[in-house]
Each structure stands twice: as C-alpha cells, then as structure tokens.
Sequence to fold (349 residues):
Amino acid sequence: MTNNDALTDVAGLRVGHARVAGDGALSGTTVVLAPEGGAVAAVDVRGGGPGTRETDALDPRNLVPRVEAVVLTGGSAYGLDAAGGVMAWLEEQGRGIPVGGPGRVVPVVPAACLFDLGRGGDWRARPDASTGRAAVEAAAAAEPGAPFATGAVGAGTGALIGGMKGGIGTASTVLPSGATVAALVAANAVGSALDPRTGVLYGRHFATSDGPVPLPDAAVHEAAVKRLNETRAAIGMPPLNTTLAVVATDAALDKAQAQKLAGTAHDGIARAVRPVHLLNDGDTVFALSTGARPLDAADPLALNEVLAAGADVVCRAIVQAVLAARGVDGPGGSFPSYSDLYGEGPGGA
Fold:
C-alpha cells in the first residue's frame, strides 16, 4: 500500500497529464486510468453549465458495468475531443466492452471539461485527441502507486478559482476498516477558495486538526484583496468555470453506491469554495471503485465512512491544488497564485 496522500494510493489507479503546446496555450488534459478490467464508476453533476461526455452510461439503471478511464480536460466543450484520443488508445490495447470477436471492444470513456478558453492568449489553443492520447500514455507509463504532479498541470493548467490561480490537487486517507478513499480535483471555480475577511483558505478550516488556522498579516491580506479585485476586473468577461473531481476507493461498491459517493463528495467542494454549483459552473464529480476490499456485509451502514471520507479528501485536494499552483503572467493575462499573494505563511501552508 502506498501513501502519497494522492489518488494513486488507491491501488491500480494511475494518473497522467498532458499540456497543449504553444506560447498562447494554457490548457491541458488529465486522465485517470483504471486497472485492466476497469472500475465501477458513477457521476454526480451539480453545476448549471456542465460539459460532459458518456455520463449517461454511468447511470445505475444503464448497461455499462465498468470504465477503463476518466478524462478531465480544459478547453470547455471543445476539449471533450481529448476523450477520443483516450478511446483510441484503449481500443489498441483491447480494453473496453466486448462486442463481438477478438479485438472488438468499445471503450466507454466518461469525460468532463472546464472553461479555460483564451487564458493563454490564444482562444483556439485547446486540448484535442492528441492531448488525450498523450495524457493516457503518460498514465500508462507511470509506476503503480506513483505520485503525480499537482498545481497548474493537465486539466488544471489554465484553472482559476475566484480570480486566483487554481489547478490540480489530490489527497487520500485510510479508514479504520482499512479501505482507502482518495480524490483528484481540478479546481476552477466562479466562487472563491479564499475567505475575504481573513485571507485564510476556506478548506483549511476542515483540512487540519491542528487547532485554529493562523491568520495572514492584515496588511498582506489588504494588498492581496486589492490585487485580486484588479485581476477579476482585467478578465473583462463573466466568469465561466467548473470544478471537476474524481473520488476513488478500493472498497467494493456497486454503481448505486458509487453514485451516492459522487454525490456526497460534492460536499467537499462546498466546504472549500463559496459559492458553488452556480449556473456558470459545471461542477462534476466522478466516483470510481476498484472493488478490492469488500464492505462489511453485517453492517448496513458500512458505506457511511466511505461517504464521509469522500467529502473530506475532495476538500483537502482543493486546498492542495491552490497551494501547489504558481502564478501566470502571459499574453492571456496575469493570474496570481495564493503564494504570490500571501507567501508561504499562515492561513494556507
């Protein structure tokens, strides 16, 4: 069992990132690759402006039992093309739903996108099938349990959260039962991760057990708020965003239980970002179960600890995403990070 405080602590899962090339590009794709044979999957969409692919297949009433990969991507709806590259790679590996003779498979690749168009300066610089292929190849090349990059990488390359730099974050926990629950988040929200009264990240109040979170210096906070207001004004358009997450466990869940996990995991977004689930968000959470560890059949509430942990790790992953991100100053705009605004001191680290 690995313990990197990462999604890949769920044995069998691998993560790969790819970035759109070019000076005017600030976008990319992240792929979560399941073990061969796939993982039970479900989804819960709460944002009012989602961009998704193959999510209906995950409904517990529908046919698809397992998926081989989940795609998170920038590029808004254009970026969903990245899933085609992942699908083609899976077909070449013979991975997917068998539909006939040898080699005849249909990979089901659920995907969700976030809005980052133009943030690198070039409106047309967005992920496509080649970006998806690069990300899934990176995932396949990773060692089992290997840590992966966070911050402004993959689907989080162009992410913003309340005008501040967002990105990819991750977290995991091991439950008393021995089950692992973990999350990967692409934090990109209309709402803010930052308490405007204090400068503390909202999620820090839930992500630490070390007592009260220390507050940044008042003068530092005042300067940070001023800079963030200037950044939001310079964007010059209504915020179009979306927070995406994959929450995973080795606990054996059926599709209905996985859907419940996806739903309760949204609570983690609500702890770390305010407001959430707006009309111009597309907040989407996927849930994956590798099924390696059966739930206690004698306990009808055994799922509860998994549900509670899902929200916890999503919240912590958002905090980690914001802390790992680094600011961007380019043709698409200047987007400061939390560390640019507050340093590495109280309230965040």
Summary: The longest helix spans residues 303-324. Residues 159 and 188 are 5 Å apart (CA to CA).
